């Protein structure tokens, strides 16, 4: 367990793991949902955290206190059996009808868009760390979802959601890649190669997602990934036909609320978690 323990006043007292991806859409969100539920089933007080989310349309959720967060963090909170709150998603950006809406700490705050890049980065990072510290003081374990790719080199100095955060809190990381995106070897090994040595050293496992077929057929692929990267492959998750509610993008906030209140969502999270746990070595999180 010591390998997953954070230290110092920056990160509070919680243990953590970051779920990074080779790109958007590879399965970071649903992997985070499953990890949250799996830990919760084992009595761990776990909470999800996504520093910054980006989305098109109206797929946001308004909490009981009136704060706005992304509907993905609502699913993750449900996985952890917690009520959704703004600290789980301190920065959110929506593009809708040609306009950009920015939410900071649960409230719309478009003024940050007018700030100079360096100042904007500083403001957002401060809000993110305030939220992370709050969660880490109140929960035993934080599961952090990254945003997009962690190695967009032109954005490194302005990063607010991936390696900047994991470096600061010294979080161990899982790297998720999707077979349906094709080029999973290039994506995973390329992502690792673009990390700095100390960042790459924090990657404790690779996760191959959405494999079409029997995952045993990809054993040789896992061996190649491990030999080329030096990072253990935690498993291959086969494509799962049972996803329904979790893959939906609600049309409006009210639809998200109704979905959260249905037992079907909770049951689907349990089934999805069982599927993931069958194919991933999640027990390593508690070893």
Notes on the structure:
The protein has one domain: Rossmann fold (3-Layer(aba) Sandwich). A hairpin with a 2-residue loop joins strand 7 and strand 8. It is built from nine helices and twelve strands. The longest helix has 22 residues. Helix content is 36%, strand content 22%. The strands form three sheets. A six-stranded parallel beta sheet has the order 2-9-1-10-11-12, with helices on both faces. Strands 3-6-7-8 form a four-stranded mixed beta sheet. With 287 residues, it is of the alpha/beta class.
Number of helices: 9
The figure for the number of domains is 1
Structural class: alpha/beta
At CATH level 2, the architecture is 3-Layer(aba) Sandwich
Tell the overall outline. Answer: globular
N-end to C-end Cα span: 5 Å
Q: Within the CATH hierarchy, at the fold level, what is the topology?
A: Rossmann fold
* Unreliable parts: 1-9
Note the beta-strand portion. Answer: 15-25%
How many strands, which pairing sense, and closed or not: the largest β-sheet? 6 strands, parallel
CATH class: Alpha Beta
Question: Which series of helices and strands comes N to C?
Answer: EHEEEEHEEEHEHEHHEHEHH
Give the spatial strand order of the biggest sheet. Answer: 2-9-1-10-11-12
For this structure, the quaternary state is single chain
Kindly provide the radius of gyration, computed on alpha-carbon positions and rounded to a whole number of angstroms.
18 Å
């Amino acid at each position: 367990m010591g390998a997953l323990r954070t230290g110092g006043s920056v990160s509070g007292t919680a243990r953590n793991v970051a779920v990074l991806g080779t790109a958007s859409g590879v399965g970071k969100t649903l992997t985070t949902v499953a990890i949250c539920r799996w830990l919760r089933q084992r009595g761990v007080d776990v909470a999800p955290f996504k520093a910054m989310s980006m989305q098109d349309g109206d797929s946001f959720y308004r909490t009981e206190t009136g704060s706005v967060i992304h509907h993905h963090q609502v699913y993750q909170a449900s996985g952890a059996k917690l009520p959704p709150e703004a600290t789980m998603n301190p920065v959110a950006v929506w593009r809708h009808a040609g306009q950009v809406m920015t939410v900071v700490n649960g409230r719309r705050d478009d003024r940050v868009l007018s700030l100079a890049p360096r100042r904007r980065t500083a403001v957002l990072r401060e809000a993110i760390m305030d939220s992370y510290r709050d969660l880490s003081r109140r929960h035993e374990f934080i599961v952090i979802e990254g945003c997009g790719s962690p190695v967009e080199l032109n954005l490194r100095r302005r990063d607010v959601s991936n390696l900047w955060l994991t470096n600061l809190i010294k979080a161990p990381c899982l790297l998720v890649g999707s077979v349906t995106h094709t080029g999973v070897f290039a994506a995973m090994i390329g992502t690792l190669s673009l990390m700095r040595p100390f960042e790459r050293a924090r990657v404790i496992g690779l996760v191959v997602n959405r494999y079409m077929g029997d995952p045993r057929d990809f054993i040789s692929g896992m061996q190649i990934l491990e030999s080329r990267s030096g990072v253990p492959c935690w498993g291959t998750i086969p494509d799962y036909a049972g996803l329904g509610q979790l893959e939906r993008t609600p049309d409006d906030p009210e639809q998200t609320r109704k979905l959260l209140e249905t037992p079907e969502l909770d049951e689907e999270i349990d089934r999805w978690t069982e599927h993931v746990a069958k194919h991933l070595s999640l027990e390593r999180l508690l070893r």
